[in-house]
Specification:
Length: 89
Protein backbone atom coordinates (compact mmCIF):
# COMPACT_ATOMS: atom_id res chain seq x y z
CA UNK A 1 0.00 0.00 0.00
CA UNK A 2 1.42 3.35 -1.02
CA UNK A 3 1.36 6.27 1.43
CA UNK A 4 -1.36 7.96 -0.65
CA UNK A 5 -3.63 4.91 -0.35
CA UNK A 6 -3.59 5.30 3.44
CA UNK A 7 -5.11 8.79 3.22
CA UNK A 8 -8.81 9.29 3.83
CA UNK A 9 -10.84 10.97 1.09
CA UNK A 10 -11.02 14.14 3.21
CA UNK A 11 -7.22 14.14 3.68
CA UNK A 12 -6.81 13.85 -0.11
CA UNK A 13 -9.21 16.74 -0.67
CA UNK A 14 -7.44 18.92 1.91
CA UNK A 15 -3.98 18.07 0.50
CA UNK A 16 -5.09 19.16 -2.97
CA UNK A 17 -6.51 22.40 -1.56
CA UNK A 18 -3.17 23.05 0.22
CA UNK A 19 -1.40 22.43 -3.09
CA UNK A 20 -3.73 25.01 -4.68
CA UNK A 21 -2.48 27.55 -2.10
CA UNK A 22 -5.52 27.90 0.16
CA UNK A 23 -5.20 28.76 3.84
CA UNK A 24 -6.60 26.57 6.61
CA UNK A 25 -9.43 29.08 7.05
CA UNK A 26 -10.31 28.96 3.34
CA UNK A 27 -10.12 25.17 3.32
CA UNK A 28 -12.34 25.02 6.39
CA UNK A 29 -15.01 27.08 4.63
CA UNK A 30 -14.93 24.83 1.56
CA UNK A 31 -14.97 21.60 3.58
CA UNK A 32 -17.47 22.97 6.09
CA UNK A 33 -15.41 22.67 9.26
CA UNK A 34 -13.12 24.66 11.54
CA UNK A 35 -9.48 25.58 11.09
CA UNK A 36 -8.61 23.33 14.05
CA UNK A 37 -10.15 20.29 12.34
CA UNK A 38 -8.21 21.14 9.17
CA UNK A 39 -5.00 21.29 11.23
CA UNK A 40 -5.79 17.85 12.67
CA UNK A 41 -6.34 16.42 9.19
CA UNK A 42 -3.06 17.96 8.05
CA UNK A 43 -1.15 16.44 10.98
CA UNK A 44 -2.47 13.00 10.03
CA UNK A 45 -1.65 13.60 6.37
CA UNK A 46 1.88 14.75 7.21
CA UNK A 47 2.46 11.59 9.26
CA UNK A 48 1.10 9.28 6.57
CA UNK A 49 3.11 10.88 3.76
CA UNK A 50 6.28 11.53 5.76
CA UNK A 51 6.28 15.29 5.23
CA UNK A 52 6.81 18.02 7.82
CA UNK A 53 5.12 21.13 6.42
CA UNK A 54 2.45 22.51 4.11
CA UNK A 55 5.20 23.32 1.59
CA UNK A 56 6.44 19.73 1.59
CA UNK A 57 2.85 18.51 1.26
CA UNK A 58 2.26 20.82 -1.71
CA UNK A 59 5.51 19.61 -3.30
CA UNK A 60 4.46 15.98 -2.72
CA UNK A 61 1.10 16.56 -4.41
CA UNK A 62 2.77 18.47 -7.28
CA UNK A 63 5.33 15.73 -7.87
CA UNK A 64 2.61 13.06 -7.90
CA UNK A 65 0.28 14.62 -10.44
CA UNK A 66 -1.09 17.84 -8.95
CA UNK A 67 -4.82 18.10 -9.62
CA UNK A 68 -4.77 14.52 -10.96
CA UNK A 69 -3.38 13.23 -7.65
CA UNK A 70 -4.03 10.60 -6.53
CA UNK A 71 -3.70 8.72 -9.78
CA UNK A 72 -7.01 7.48 -11.18
CA UNK A 73 -8.16 4.41 -9.36
CA UNK A 74 -9.54 3.36 -6.03
CA UNK A 75 -8.43 6.39 -3.99
CA UNK A 76 -9.70 8.99 -6.47
CA UNK A 77 -13.01 7.21 -6.99
CA UNK A 78 -13.47 6.88 -3.24
CA UNK A 79 -12.74 10.57 -2.69
CA UNK A 80 -15.21 11.70 -5.34
CA UNK A 81 -17.93 9.31 -4.19
CA UNK A 82 -17.55 10.35 -0.53
CA UNK A 83 -16.97 14.08 -0.88
CA UNK A 84 -18.02 15.02 -4.38
CA UNK A 85 -15.63 16.63 -6.81
CA UNK A 86 -12.92 18.83 -5.37
CA UNK A 87 -14.00 22.44 -5.96
CA UNK A 88 -12.02 24.47 -8.46
CA UNK A 89 -10.75 27.60 -6.79
Amino acid sequence: MTPCERLTPKEVQIAILVWEGLTNREIGKIVGTSERVIKNHLRGTFDKLGVWSRLELAMYVASHGGKNWPEPGRSAALAERSLGPVPLV
